[in-house]
Amino acid sequence: MEQEFESNEIIDRLPAHLKQFIKPQNYEDYTAVNQAVWRYVMRKNVDYLSKVAHSSYLEGLRQTGISIDHIPNMYGMNRILKEIGWAAVAVDGFIPPAAFMEFQAYNVLVIASDIRQLDHIEYTPAPDIIHEGAGHAPIIANPEYAEYLRRFGEIGCKAISSAKDYEIYEAIRHLSIIKEAEDTPDEEIAVAEKRVDELQNDLREQSEMAQIRNLHWWTVEYGLIGTVEDPRIYGAGLLSSIGESAWCMTDKVKKLPYSIEAAQQEFDITKPQPQLYVTPDFAHLSMVLEEFANKMALRVGGLEGIKKLINSKNVGTIELSTGLQISGDFTRVIEHEGNPVYFQTTGETALANRDKELVGHGIENHPDGFGSPVGKLKGINLAIEDMSPRDLRAYDIYEGLKVAFEFEGGVVVKGEIITGTRNLQGKIILISLKDCTVTYKEEVLFKPEWGKYDMAVGKEVVSAFAGPADWHSFDMITHKTSSTTIKSKKTPEKQELESLYESVRNIREGKNTKFSLEAAFDILKKHHPKDWLLSVEIFELAHDKDERLASEVLEHLEKVRAQRPEVAHLIDGGISLIKPDFVAG
């Protein structure tokens, strides 16, 4: 795979199936308007969040190299993040939840490198660099929270999805893209919103991935910390939204103690959240995560675990009590008295032990699926895996001998033993037979003419999880999105406005510019009378140096306020940063 991004030792550790999501940041693509949006949000946030955010926030900005004045350069961030054992990579908008979480497991922050439009400065449903860089990054400087995030990723990427989850991901990704794009017809947005609503209101049982995604939302994205009566903000969605960070602290938003019940609470990314959860401390987050993990198929296994994998219609893995792992698309399970007694995959399947593919048991050896009984032999209390060499000999489980294994639940395996494969502890994990027939009641599950039969050994299924045991077993470089983020159109009018923003930025930074502040303001008034943010920036620079120009700018902003009441509070917010005693006329 051609590498188009700057790497480091943390990013180098990422497997290829995650690297496929990474894209170059292309820092030069950010316009002066983009930089002004970043600066406005950061100045407002730091001013307000210093009063209401968790104490880690301001220190975290410094530790992670997040500047108030400039959109962060990923490579610069990585040099600083490395000191706390993390890294950051750029991606295109939303990526699948399992991939997002697995990045976290590798201590890598996923940052959508696009930035919201000026018209969406308070909030955007699309992930952007303000949300990811200014929201997620600062809090990971807190070691306890950083470990929670890593552990969440480690557990979350094993959660089993459903077909519905992928539909929701695609629908939300599409909605976030068209809502952030310019000139999207209202009707198109309404159709996309209706589709998301329909999927989210679908009453089918929530998958593990849906539930853990809810926990992620109510903690990592929209979490509060402290007490219900006096909460502080730590969730990235709140830290990056100048509108919702203020809204969430009012009585209009219900505050609930954080518990595992949050796994059942769905969310809507397009609207402010009606309720939020408050954790007493970061340690409590990890306690709830472990409580949830204890209920996952990852730790429970069993019949339910296999059924979840069948419903997922994706590659998943079961692990038997011997440590043998079977990875593939599970399509069938035969049960007896609440336990699985036979499982079947369809298509490419690989066998592994300790997350490493067994030699001779990759997808080229099992291209058409794999089926095996599981459990104990009928009438024998000792499971095959627990038998000593003497026990195995006593039961004629020996190379070159013909054998008939009759399992509890009715599956029968007859054939001649070729060999057995053992794990490091000496337990037999696989028995290979020739001239083999496998039956269940009257049904033939395997015929001698199909070749060698590999029978998995294990008295129970101890784990079931999403994805393969060994990622090298399958071709995972297949990600294709149905949509990509839509770039802003470059009209002559927009280019002129960007040039004015660039000139004012240069004046602030003491660089040469073809415009004076006054000239830039004159062109702005004449040709871009509805723009408000550049006027605020000009006012900031003129405030202590040019009283006449500052008065003119304020007068102009009063007109913009009257013409565009929807941005009046943003104008007031910007001026109050410069002039705290400002009262709008």
From TrEMBL:
Cofactor(s) of this protein: Fe(2+)
Source organism (scientific name): Salinimicrobium flavum
Task: Write the protein's name.
Answer: Aromatic amino acid hydroxylase
NCBIfam families, per database record: PRK14056.1
Cross-referenced CDD domains: arom_aa_hydroxylase
Q: Which domain of life is it from?
A: Bacteria
UniProt KW Amino-acid biosynthesis keyword: no
EC number(s) stated in the UniProt entry for this protein: 1.14.16.-
Q: Which family does it belong to?
A: Belongs to the biopterin-dependent aromatic amino acid hydroxylase family.
Q: Name one Pfam family in it.
A: Biopterin_H
